[in-house]
Design a protein that fits this description.
six-stranded antiparallel β-sheet
């Protein structure tokens, strides 16, 4: 049996991990996992984007590998960067390929690319980790200094 308990890590940056079987019903559980972590971190405004990203990354694992399990990892890299990753035992890298706008599938990585600040894939001896990062806040442009008037110069 595969563990599906979300595990917080107590040392270092805030990280939660969930190991899921590579079955279609795991996508729903991964979405709920993202929603719960984002709620905990007080970033509910990013929940929908995070749910779509984890859905697409996990679906790629289901559709393009024969891995029995995948790990979903959510990490708070900095105060303003959240990383969602799906790790599996396959060495097949995801490809952002040309797609047919009328196709019923094949747009997952385009969604990940559109919704995330950046995304990528890291390879390891044991497999790979496909990840996407979201920004939690943007730096507001600074307001220009007020132009002194003859009134304010007095």
């Amino acid at each position: 049996m595969t563990s599906t308990i979300a595990t917080p890590h107590s040392i270092g940056r805030p990280v939660y991990t969930m190991v899921l079987p590579c079955r279609p019903e795991s996508v729903r559980r991964a979405r709920a996992f993202v929603a719960g972590v984002f709620e905990t971190w007080g970033i509910r405004s990013l929940t929908e984007d995070g749910e779509v990203i984890v859905s697409e990354l996990l679906t790629n694992t289901l559709d393009h590998t024969t891995c029995p399990v995948a790990a979903v990892v959510i990490e708070r890299c900095t105060d303003d960067v959240i990383r969602i990753e799906v790790a599996d035992g396959s060495h097949t890298r995801p490809q952002l390929a040309d797609h047919d706008a009328d196709a019923e599938s094949g747009r997952g990585l385009f969604l990940v690319d559109a919704l995330s600040w950046r995304w990528g894939c890291d390879e390891y001896d044991w497999g790979k980790s496909t990840w996407a990062e979201l920004k939690t806040m943007t730096t507001a442009p600074s307001a220009p200094d007020p132009v002194p008037t003859s009134e304010s110069a007095r």
